[in-house]
Design a protein that fits this description.
alpha+beta, Butyryl-CoA Dehydrogenase, subunit A, domain 2, single chain, 4-stranded antiparallel sheet, Butyryl-CoA Dehydrogenase, subunit A, domain 3, 4-stranded mixed sheet, 14% strand, Butyryl-Coa Dehydrogenase, subunit A, domain 1, 385 residues
């Protein structure tokens, strides 16, 4: 039976919820660089953020296609899921690799909203996407790990109770492969002693609540080790395909928002006695953006289909993320060009969404690294880095 990616009931429900959070709500947050706490609470209460958590732990027990529908509709409505999307893929690390005690302790509370798992501590200032070169260490002392180091671009750390943290538990010089010796810890940031955990916000061109985090002898119980010690790199990799699929769905939603906004304005805006949408110079970029979006959407559906069937679609997930990010950016460009000067005015929301969607050609993985992956793992060319 073919996978139904439409989920019309879910899409309708998300659209109704998002209608309660129109442009003025997001503009105010954007000016103040504030977190959309009310929006995240509404999504949590409606059960959308726990869509992929199994029913036995209080979630809806749905597949990734449902999450795709949720995130796409949020962005199509002009809202931004960047404040909370991480929960959908970070909780997968606990679900797939956590102990029975960890799952029974944390997942029901994450599903209900009693706990937030939004922070994902992987990237560091000196290593960037070279994850195996990270320098944050977790030294075992009896029944606890002592964590020291620094993470950057750890979004939502200020608005999360828990963090999935990747740290080196065996020195790089002592492992046979550089991917060995990395471990995943579930950090309860509420229990950190004074001075052991410092979070510093980073102001960026979009309101993404990102931070840098410093660890100074932070104590984490060994009971919070996820899976086996030293095997953490593969656990993190396992969640990256889901992350790429979900980010791609947001980009598709953004692209649809831009295309709908631009085509509507092109029909209404009259210059020189005719709608500007009558001019091919306006029509064609919007139509081309639509074509790009539809092609990327098909790749997204294929990636989600394979993932939901239990496969590990590295090629399709990376392609979906890259093509969708490119499509959303092309749609954003066409929209700004269609609006002209008004595209830069805050009240139309175009400039805000323009800034927000630009992020995804860089994060969570840049276009160049996707191309490197395809070159090496799909086309069999020599590794370039």
């Amino acid at each position: 039976m073919p996978l139904d990616l439409n989920h019309p009931d879910i899409r309708e429900g998300v659209a109704k919820l998002c209608a309660e959070f129109p442009g003025p709500y997001w503009r105010k947050l954007d000016r103040e660089m504030a977190y959309p706490a009310e929006f995240v609470r509404a999504l949590t209460d409606a059960g959308y953020l726990s869509a992929m958590i199994p029913e036995e732990y209080g979630g809806a027990g749905l597949g990734i296609s449902a999450a795709v529908a949720i995130l796409e509709e949020i962005h199509r409505a002009g809202c931004n899921a960047g404040a909370c999307h991480a929960q959908m893929y970070t909780m997968g690390t606990v679900l797939r690799h956590g102990s029975a005690a960890q799952k029974s302790t944390y997942l029901p509370q994450i599903a209900s909203g009693a706990l937030r798992l939004q922070a994902f501590g992987v990237t560091e200032p000196t290593s960037g996407t070279d994850t195996t070169a990270l320098k944050t260490t977790a030294r075992r002392e009896g029944d606890r790990y002592i964590v020291n180091g620094q993470k950057i671009w750890t979004s939502r750390a200020e608005h999360s109770d828990l963090m999935v943290l990747l740290a080196r538990t065996t020195p790089l010089a002592d492992v046979a492969k550089k991917t060995d010796g990395l471990s995943v810890l579930l950090v309860d940031m509420r229990t950190a002693k004074p001075g052991a955990l410092t979070i510093r916000p980073i102001r960026t061109m979009m309101n993404h609540s990102t931070t840098e985090v410093f660890f100074d002898n932070l104590e984490v119980p060994t009971a919070n080790l996820i899976g086996e010690e030293g095997k953490g790199f593969r656990y993190i990799l396992a969640g990256m395909n889901a992350e790429r699929i979900l980010i791609a769905s947001e980009c598709i939603g953004d692209a649809k928002w831009f295309i709908e906004k631009a085509s509507s304005y092109a029909k209404e805006r009259v210059v020189f006695g005719r709608p500007i949408g009558q001019n091919q110079g306006i029509q064609f970029p919007i139509a081309k953006a639509y074509a790009d979006m539809r092609a990327a959407e098909l790749m997204l559906h294929e990636a989600a289909r394979l993932y939901e069937a239990g496969e590990n679609p590295g090629e399709e997930s990376n392609l979906a993320k890259m093509l969708a990010a490119d499509a959303s950016w092309a749609a954003a460009e066409a929209c700004v060009q269609t609006f002209g000067g008004f595209g830069f005015a805050e009240e139309y929301d175009v400039e805000r969404k323009f800034r927000e969607t630009r992020l995804y050609r860089v994060a969570p993985i840049s276009t160049n690294l996707v191309l490197s992956y395809l070159s090496e793992h799909v086309l069999g060319m020599p590794r370039s880095y």
